[in-house]
UniProtKB/TrEMBL annotation, chain A:
Protein's name according to its UniProt entry: phenylalanine--tRNA ligase
A biological process term (GO) from this entry: phenylalanyl-tRNA aminoacylation
Coiled-coil ranges from the UniProt annotation: none
PANTHER family: PHENYLALANINE--TRNA LIGASE ALPHA SUBUNIT, PHENYLALANYL-TRNA SYNTHETASE
InterPro entries, sorted: aa-tRNA-synth_II, aa-tRNA-synth_II/BPL/LPL, Phenylalanyl-tRNA_Synthase, PheRS_DBD3
NCBIfam families in the record: PRK04172.1
Organism: Ephemerocybe angulata
CDD domains reported in the protein's UniProt record: PheRS_alpha_core (cd00496)
UniProtKB/TrEMBL annotation, chain B:
Higher taxonomy: Eukaryota, Fungi, Dikarya, Basidiomycota, Agaricomycotina
InterPro entries, sorted: aa-tRNA-synth_II/BPL/LPL (IPR045864), B3/B4_tRNA-bd (IPR005146), DNA-bd_dom_put_sf (IPR009061), Phe-tRNA-ligase_IIc_bsu (IPR045060), Phe-tRNA-synth_IIc_bsu_arc_euk (IPR004531), Phe-tRNA_synthase-like_B3/B4 (IPR020825), PheRS_beta_core (IPR041616), PhetRS_B1 (IPR040659)
Organism encoding this protein: Ephemerocybe angulata
Name recorded for this polypeptide: Phenylalanine--tRNA ligase beta subunit
Subcellular location field: Cytoplasm
Molecular-function GO terms, alphabetical: ATP binding; magnesium ion binding; phenylalanine-tRNA ligase activity; RNA binding
Record keywords, A-Z: Aminoacyl-tRNA synthetase, ATP-binding, Cytoplasm, Ligase, Magnesium, Metal-binding, Nucleotide-binding, Protein biosynthesis
Quaternary context: Tetramer of two alpha and two beta subunits.
EC class name: ligase
Entries under PROSITE patterns matching the protein: B5
Family to which the UniProt record says this protein belongs: Belongs to the phenylalanyl-tRNA synthetase beta subunit family. Type 2 subfamily.
Amino acid sequence: MSESIQQLILDTLDTQGSIADTRTLVVPGTSHAATSHDAQLAILGALNSLLSREMVTYETNEVISHALTAEGAQIANEGSHEARVWSVLPLKGQGEPINPGQLKKEVGDETAKVGQGRAFKNGWIGKEGAGLVKLVMPTIFRTGNLSSGEKVLADLRKRKLIAQKKGQWFAVMKGANFSTSIAKPETDLTADMLTSGSWKTSTYKKYNFEAEGIPTSGGALHPLLKVREEIRNNFLEMGFCEMPTQSFVESGFWCFDALFVPQQHPARDLQDTFYLSDPSHSLPPQEAYYNRVKTVHVDGGFGSAGYRAPWQPEESSKLLLRTHTTASSAHMLYKLAAKCRGEDIEDDTKEFTHGAASTKDANDKTTAKVDGFRPAKLFSIDRVFRNETMDATHLAEFHQVEGVVADRNLTLADLIGFMRVFFSKMGIEQVRFKPAYNPYTEPSLEIFAFHPMLNKWVEVGNSGMFRPEMLEPMGFPKDVRVHGWGLSLERPTMIRYGINNIRTLVGHKTSIENIENSPAVMF
Amino acid sequence: MPTVAVDKADLWERLGQEFTTDEFDKLCFDYGLELDEDTTEEVEENIKKGLPAERPQLKIEIPANRYDLLCIEGIARALLVFLQKQDAPKYKLVYPKGGESDLLTVKIDPSTAAIRPLFACAILRNIKFTEKSYASFIDLQDKLHQNICRRRQLVAIGTHDLDTLTPPFRYEAKAPSTIKFAPLGKTQEYTAEELMTLYEGEKHLAKYLHIIRDSPVYPIIYDSKDQVLSMPPIINSDHSKITLNTRNVFIDVTATDQTKLDIVVNMVATMFSEYCEEPFTIEPVKIILPNGQSRITPDISARQMTAHASYVNSCTGLRLSSTEVATLLKRMSLEASVNPDNSDEITVSIPPTRPDIFHECDIMEDAAIAYGFNNLPDKFPATSTVGQPLAISKLSDVVRLEWALAGFIEVLPLILCSHEDNFEWLNHEDDNKTAVKIANPKTLEFQVVRTTLVPGLLKTIRENRSHALPIKIFESSDVVFKDTTRERQARNERHAAAVYCNKSAGFEIVHGMLDRAMKMLEIPRISSQDSSATTGYYIKETTDGMYFPGRAANIYYRSKARPSGTISELKGRVESALHIHHDVQIGSLGILHPTVLEKFEINFPCSALEFTLEPFKKQMQKVWTNED
């Protein structure tokens, strides 16, 4: 069809030079001129196809016509609503009055409703008992034409008896590539065309630049892990070493005792922590260290009064799933202090090469040699476990981002200044710090960021300086201070992707399609 | 963190000024409290609607170690001092006229050693309760019970109208059948045995019964006429209950932990001594211990500690004089004075309300809070170090990226799973030597730590039924195995696994994924028969219930590296020359058995591949390891 119309247009142009009005064309297979709307649509399709090959150009002309609506058509055919109501009623005194229910059945709901009112108003019908009757037999069979004019049309449009229709017709001229041959244009450049050289003579279909490209078939990385990579890069850019954290199972000793978390702390409750039934107890940690930790809890020491609370070795050896990666950090710090304790970790010649000499004591070269301390900046991003009931914002497992800086005489001002840089690298410019309580840091600072969308300050992480009761039993010299901070990986990821339900991000209920379509992360 | 609800108007009255919500929020923030909620709007809304409304409240989150802030009295006192509107109160013991010999006594019977040996008490004289202060008094006890007392397990508090009792008192432990009294709120007498049954149905008491239920003896406090005061940690007697009209309050505290005992008795006494005729006075009580020695409680003497301006400055980055530090500490209710003989030293006296202070660092923190964390200068640590990723992360990332480039989607299932997921549903038996098991999971979904990544991948496919085929997913993450040689009795292992799900199983697709990963890791593919190759990987047919018969293979790796150390290295070289290889199985692949698919409710065939990445870790610049 389209092709035959195209041919007709081209032939007509060839003989007439131009087509002034496409309504004059007689489309193949029809006997009269293409005046209908549908016929002009078919012509438009053919014209566009020719236009894309620049064989023609055309101008669009609009014409407005009026047509009856369904209601208008009914009135034109069967009479007005009031006339139809009138016509079905018996003349007063000449038959059984018709009640409204019956009337509806006779003429339909709409006609009964509208017609009744108007017929009453005109005085054509009246009530008799519960029914209706004709009152008059006027000469209303007279018909005629309405006078023409926009006012009448507007009135009929308002009454929804007629509707305006836009029609189109076209004036057609020859295009740059005019020819009477409608050879199919090429859609793509092919190897064959290069070989044969036909690319030089072929015509090409115009490319639709508005259409989407074909979806790629590659894989995708998980959005949470894309954020992990971004944050990990931030750490690496700032000179941090990634800590080994491949130890989901920890003992009460490493997860809590070593961090100076009292044995009676609520975090150690069965309610909050996953304990293991098999295996259930760890092997003992290094005895001397264990005893120092126990003593600082029970009797104090290193300038501290200690908790002065009962100590149960059982609590220390209980195995559990780590509730925070700080358990791994504690173990790393213990290793970092090995030389300070006078111990040599086997084969550690290269172990501290990524650390620098203590920066605070740059002039005092002797200190480092004497106590063996080398500063370190460490980070980890790994999974932690909490015995929580799952809901939209809580999972039993999530990722903790943790950073640790150990150096001589670090200050709270360093921690605060550093946090500002760390968070600004995550795109969080406005932060402030609230004093908080944490058993293993003093001071402890909760970090709040201004959330422009929520228009309020929200907690984004925790930080602090590790307590002397934790560091000194490990063997660190008194002037070594260690900053630590942590945040969840899920929270910034949910904010980044506008996710409200954590279960749609982590776990097997995540939609693969969402993973495929998660944008890249550039904080 | 505990949350305390205080009456807004009352707090403003105590603070001598009104705050807007924002102003008060800022004050809380600076002091280290968190204003959780101001109910004013809610209350006004209710009043508008004609609904019953309480007075507007402020809900304030309190740091878990600040027991002195668990009531409006303590919060107001701390903030008034912080705002420099008043000095910190000085708590004082006031003896009866006759001095120590007139002290009320409580004799501790040796029998209490078997159940709850520690006892302390205090008396508040000539107190005047109002309805609000009375409610606050009850509420503080409840807050202490829920927090430091660990739901009455470690410490329990009882309060009594002293005028209804006849001293001296005695604290004993007796067989439950021999204890009989009318408990709080009842007129009828019950034996302790009967009470245990009676209270099983009362939600607020049932949770404490376990603390003593199975003990042959229960703790009990009597007066000299054998009138019961209380049966800690469960219930007081009705006879001695305090009312709005009570003028003299006897506070009993029992515990299993001496430090917490002292903290709790001090908190209750100091907080409410405010309402005594002479505010902040407490009458002590003499306790006669089983060994005949006596002890006077409560001990509210201030502890003397020494802080150094140099230490405070070196921790905070400030340059304050000792006098300035002392002034800051006063705002935190810590009496501080500069040592006249040593201008760096500050003598700090720690009031009985601040047992949270253990170390000079706690004093340093208080100085920093008073200075304002957000007023501290910004610095950047000069610590200069070289960044370095972990070898296992780098390796894992290589495989992740290559597999994503190969058209697979990375998914992130959970690490904890049910026993069925990890064993039965894969047609694997649990030999009890493999998986780490959880003792106290809240749901069956978390019984074991996974030893394989496959179940998580299959569950992900199950939940993504509507996704167009083929489904191609992978994960590279940790699994955990029992390992009795290690301190923690377990070890993580980094695995990589992929599953392909389509109308046909496609063994060769996951096989291709293995080949691709190995190619990128430069591990050559060798024949399973090739004994001359020094290194490489190969696959070899196997039987495994998880896989379809005849479509399953194990993956083997022949490592070039020999364990370091001269003897084993030498041995390795000899073995290598003799073509003796220690090929290790690193994983498996195959078409999943239809019974496995059925269990995971997957209607299309799947092929799976899983192997450990551990042998392929690059020897990086030596990093610290968490291995023992």
